[in-house]
Write a structure and sequence with these properties.
mainly alpha, elongated, 615 residues
Amino acid sequence: MTMKFIRDDIQFLRGLSVIIIFFFHFDQSNFKYFYVGVDIFFLISGYVITNSIFNYINKKKDFNLSIFFLKRLKRIYPNLLFFLIVFNFLFFSYSYVNDGIYFQTIISTLTTIFGTSNFYYILNPSLEYFSETVKWLNHTWSLSVELQFYVFYGVLISLLTYFKKGIKIKKIFIFSLIIFFSISFYLFIFGKGKYLSSYYFGPARFWEFFLGSSLYIIKVKRLENINFNLFITIYLIFLTFINFLPYHLDYRVTILIFVLPIYFCLIFNKKIKINLFTKFFKFYGNISYSFFLWHLPIISLVGLSSTANNFNFITSFLITTMISYTTYKFIEIPLNQRSMYDHILQKFLKIFILVVTFVSILIFFNHEFIYKVRDNFYKNLIKLHPKIVNINKNNSNTRLNDNWVLQLDSCSNKNENFSWSTGVNCLTEGTNDSLFYILGNSYGDHFVPTVHGVKGKSTLYKARFENCYIDNTSCNDKTDDILKKFQEISKNFDNTFLIISLNTTKISKQKIEHILINLQRHITVIFVHPHPTLDIFSNVKKFEKFKKEKNNYLSILKDFKDEYNLLFFDPYEHLCQNNNCNANKYKDLFTDEAHFKLSTSKYLSLKFFNSLKYN
């Protein structure tokens, strides 16, 4: 669709929404509700795509699904692929890469290409949207939601036009719109569970697109006396004001509060007054897609280079604008035009759709297939890791968080799986009959170099384990599945050490007992007590509470010591002997005030070895 057919107010709001999103990603603490820019964009997209579809239907008296998909792909993918290629090249060439970001960046890139990054972010708790950690590609979740909507919407319109049989397409379309809007809105408000209640879940956001679609259907007398510029000014003042209120609004409430006024404004607004204010936002409306793609990595990169907030904002905004305008001018516009190759691309697309449909059906009826693909994919990423890291080996940083596992991973076998909740990773395959098996979350990860330093010729595994499996909090407990896999692996070893390293100090006697009774008696179980974080260490009251919880932790374990082969290892006693260290010295042991530096974890190796030797 060429720009001359797009309403001025729509193009203005495109620019407004992408700038609001920029503010949110730049400073989430001060602009905590500015994420609604994405929802404004969803609303606009619903209108624009519906307008485009019905213009085509009115002109051709039919709807061609392959042409619809081809237009969407040409609109989205040239710019997206260029952005992803450039970003990954620069990121892996010049940025510090730790284990977690290595996986996150590659998988985020691939899932973005396939329009499923939002599901990857649902499955990975460390990529929670509202966390204030450095993000690189998290913003692509909304692009995936948009692609998913286009697929659903295109298929829906295709079916409606095929089965209409004399019924006017608009009438049956309105009925379908109401049905699917209601379903999506229900999921948005009342959805429960890991997927349905997630901020990233696409079907729970489709209602915003459908709401935008209704703008094409609703015909009312537009009002001459609406001052669009004044409305937007008041809207922005209110949006800014609520950021400073002392209480927190649920994202569902926030989205409703700020999407509905825009919706009603678009229903009744007739025109906007063209001035410098509107020209500014229309300019960013034109480059909004390119600007959206580039803004978050640029904000993150500039933020790592400088701590001057005002400088970072101006620099990030200007760099994003310049790059976005360039890619808009030389990639987005030229490659979105009609081409002599469109008919070839259309045939290829039909074949691709058939292949994707077949594979999707295969996956649906054979979950094991997708699990095998996942595991092989992760294994190959682990093999690739040394080569990728070697690209920028001169940029090594010992203070990096999550940099403990992959550099030590030299094993690959049939026992491995890379499920988030029950994952098992073989790190080294030894030549003797001893096994070290670490159960843990990130506190298990940062203990890997400690165990690796003492294992000698033993085999070393690391498996996923959560705090809630041993403390009093409730969760979807996978303990039995994890222990079953451990028993399967450990049966081939005579000497087995099961190491549990988590960051909870409040353990449940019942859950500990459940773990122990499912283990063979010859297995040595080592509980690694969590050290105090810097925040706890620096606060007298918190530290006293920590010590009381530690005593209770020890008391519970002592109840089982006579019956089971239990050991207790306390890193804090070795890192801060006799409590003889100040806050600065203690801080230097960690990457992020909680997780060990690589050198800290290695330092504990001898201490850990001695604890095994003399117990």
